[in-house]
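Invent a record, attention on tokens:
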Amino acid sequence: MCGIIGQIAKSIIEQNQFCLKRDTLHHRGPDGKGAVFLQNNTIALGHTRLSFFDLSENGHQPMCDNRNEIWITYNGEIYNFKELKEVLLQLGCTFHTQTDTEVIIEGYKVWGIAVLQKLKGMFAMGLLDLQQQKLFLVRDRFGIKPLYYSAAYGEFIFASELKAIVKHSNHQYQVDFSSFADYFTYRYIPSPKTIWQNVAKLPPAHYLEYNIRSATYSIHEYWKIDYQKRKIEKEELAFLYGQQLEQSVLQHSRADVPVGSFLSGGYDSSAIAYLLAKNNYLPQTFSIGFNNWEKSEDQYAAVVAEKFGLNHHPLMVSENDLDLANIMPDVYDEPIADISILPTYLVSKNARKYVKAVMGGEGADELLGGYTWQKDWFREHPATWKQKLFGLSDNHPETLIPYYANAMAMGYFGSAEQQQLLHPNYHKNIPNDVHWFYRQHHQQELTAFQSIQHLDIKCFMGELVLTKIDRASMANSLEVRVPFLDHELYELVLANQESCYMDANTTKYLLYENIKQVLPKTILNRQKQGFVGPDSFYMQIEWYKSNLDQSTLIKEGIINEEYYLQLLTQQDHWRLWKLLVMEKWFNRWAL
């Protein structure tokens, strides 16, 4: 896992300044760093390395082919690189390293940008073809790895994190207040927007093709989920799912260093632990707990660790850890208000004391209907009053999008709430449709349930969950691998009618069928729980007051003080949390 950066300019790139920008990504790759300057110093590529394959200098990046024509700076893991390498060897390619990076280069030389269709893994990369005078920016199918870019100010620059673009820059980047407003609706800033004007996110499953000669670019989607209506027996699908998941877990365990695993005691992380132990790989495991909370997950993680003989490392969180919010703007250099950002950071910090990589369970709930809002819709199929009055189908956007937006909100900010929150000078920045991002990804041709799944994949997981886990882990120089996010696993399941993989009486049916004989009843009978903590941890109103009473956002005339005081009186900790996260970010980056 690594940090990447690149720049293309009309004039000479100042090398020291470029390296300063690269070094803002040191936490993503403390094992080494590199930079190359090409075409009379008008093109620069940079890299910080967290090494897992071929730990020697042979794995150094930026890396090029034997003709110095194809260059790459790459962040991620290609889990099927050994299989691809065998194919490329048979086609006459030669290799000088044991890295997956070189496989991408050689694969590009054989298949062109169509090599993306053959890659299994998480990745963000800048691939430079000097012969064609093109740069390709690529982001993996689900958005596990981040990639930002800017085509302003007469240059093109890209990087793993925003700080590498805006820091040590000759240009003054301005806050995008339409993104500011979006944040309060979504808890994050939706792609392709960022908190800064003139800086964009490359959406998941897309690549950007930049023409160096004309200084123009185009963006292309290279993968879509195919929701077919195939129907096979549930038992057969469960068997196929189990086979594919086990293969994915084993591929994700490949490394020249030990790989650990997060362990919550839920189905997902427990299944990973089981599949590793089944194949004689006993990972060190890591969990978070909260004192004096009967639902604290450390107790369940301990049950699984004991079952499989794992070396487990729990970490207990205290109320004092709320003050870690002060450093979150450096971890998340774009505001994100998921309530688990602090425990995710802490469990990553603890894991990094022992290993450089862990496995996580992200992606299982989205695919298998594990979230409450998915299960509730599937089980109840409620006939809403709008359906009764107007005959709307249950997947009509006027029915489903409000339902989904409310499920996602954790402190709802619609248009009316934002008008109360923001000073009138900023009302013009509130979108006419505050749910525009949900509407963009709503698929009316699907069933309502699969439409919710699609929204979860593109919005909740792609923008919030995976951003959270990437920044929290990489701030601690820890790689998180997510074996449930194997795109072939998704294709296998979602090609079927939802009745093939959902069961009204069984949580995550396909996974349950593969673990019901091997996990303790304590785990199998445990109620679904998110990676959060007790509400009391986030309900310390005096803490919000001490952090927001001298608010910069209020002093700058952006936020209405009256509305803030109203939230305090109502003890509305969810909305206060959103406000506090933005306040901390604004003080760190916007002043």
Q: What stands out?
A: Residues 382-392 have pLDDT under 50 and may be disordered. The two ends are 31 Å apart (CA to CA).
